[in-house]
Amino acid sequence: MTYSGTLTSKNSCLIPVFLDGKPMHSKYNPQGEAALFKDRTGCLVVAGLGGGFHLTEAVKTCSLVIACEKDEESLNFCLKLPSVRELCSKKNMLFATEKTLGSVLLSNYLPHMHGGIEFVFHRAWEDREKQSALTLKEIFSTAVRHISADYSVQSHFAKLWQRNIFINLRTFTKNPDIRNVFDTKKSVAVIAAGPSLDEDITYLRQNRNQYEIFATDTALSSLVAQGIIPDAVVSIDAQHLSTEHFKCLGSILQNEKKPVCFFDAASANESISMARKNACTTFLVHNGHPLLALASQKANIPQIQTGSGTVTIAACDIAQKLGFKDIKLFGADFAYSGGRPYARGTYLDKLYKNSSLRTDTLEEKFCALMFRTELYDTVREGLKNAKTSTVLEGYKASLELWQKEKNQPTGPFYRDLNFNFKDFCKEWKEGVEESIKENCTSLTPALCTLLPLTAFLKRISKDKLDFFSLVKLAYSYSLRYTE
Questions:
Q1: What is the pLDDT of residue 309?
Q2: 3-class secondary structure per residue, the chain
Q3: pLDDT of the residue at 464
């Protein structure tokens, strides 16, 4: 608890008092503190709520204000003050503690809607809660890094996602019932395409019957080339290039069991079509894109976890949701070794060999791929001279986080629902148009479906468009796929 009680200022305002007996605000004119954050814009995160007098101007000009306290007890104390209750009525005012600041930021701050973001302290509060101030700032920095990375991905891939989703939903009616397809009493081997897979191939071939094998799309051609037909393949890539992974399906003999192919519904439609053309059962999932989250309410398209967008985590999560208890990883190195980024037999081998020249050799192409970002030494079991990068370490951390949380309860992976594309589009249009007409400041489900695409449009736009101009552009672009 940060506060011991209140006192009344000379102009009759209730002021919170710290445990040392000192007031947080001026005893003569606490309202004068509003000048501290006057004329601020964007999203303002303030450590120290107190009586909230310092926020009364900020809440008028900022798109979003988040006031933080050390703990729930301190926050609840502040929320009872008349000056703070007045702030509570503002739609752009939110409150948080050390425990909730991260989730509040991740759930509410949208760079393309709210603009820039800033973290500031109320000086008197910081002097009394130095450790909490440091903790809150670290939580803020971590959350903003995550939001920034996610926003960066959206600004590059959102147009492709939007296109793929509508195209995939157009022909979708329902997923097949695959509840009895896999033997969940077995262990499941999730196969990634790291260099260590070269060493594991012999073991997997000799012990094939012990496992249900779930291959990531990148590892599929490596397995098929070695005579190992996986039971399932998982792909979450929206790019057309991902179709290269599935060309090897044509080499599987007709009398051999074809793998079940799990695709994110934002995946390249060409990849899904290729899997179907080769008589593979296809099953659509989604990893939280708001357009698919809305569609999944009308369809059996279950949500999966992909961490930071990692197909290995997607494969693990699907296996866990299908009921597998024992998940073993192969080729999940998140590192380079032996001068190679991937195991032998991936699509890159063929792609780079076909374009190899004396002045631009296969080895140079792989080196260019690995040294896109700075590399540094790391230790990985079974790998010699392993190198990693910040991006690969992020993927590894995401997998470790998933492993810690995988036993949390999940919803049903299969629901017997029929999806009607025309009906969905009609409801979606009505929801978006209502939000645009009202210049809706709250994020309706329909409006959220356009947020990733607005990030893309903001990046490529030469004009400084406001949020709703971007939304209208995103809606106009999306309409071409709904007719």
A1: 81
A2: CCEEEEEECCCCCEEEEECCCCECCCCCCHHHHHHHHCCCCCEEEEECCCCCHHHCCHHHHCCEEEEEECCHHHHHHHHCCHHHHHHHCCCCEEEEECCCHHHHHHHHCCHHHHCCEEEEECHHHHHHCHHHHHHHHHHHHHHHHHHHHHHHHHHHHHHHHHHHHHHHHHCCCCCCCCCCCCCCCCEEEEECCCCCHHHHHHHHHHCHHHEEEEEEHHHHHHHHHCCCCCCEEEECCCCHHHHHHHHHHHHCCCCCCCCEEEEECCCCHHHHHHHHHCCCCEEEEECCCHHHHHHCCCCCCCECCCCCCCHHHHHHHHHHHHCCCCEEEECCCCCEECCECCCCCCHHHHHHHHCCECCECHHHHHHHHHCCCCCEECCCCCCCCCEECHHHHHHHHHHHHHHHHCCCCCCCCCCCCCCCHHHHHHHHHHHHHHHHHCCCCCCCHHHHCCHHHHHHHHHHCCCCCCHHHHHHHHHHHHHCCCC
A3: 79
pLDDT tens figures, 117-151: 999 999 999 999 999 999 999 999 999 988 888 88
Instruction: Give the pLDDT confidence of 447-468 residue by residue, as tens digits.
Output: 899 999 999 998 888 777 888 8
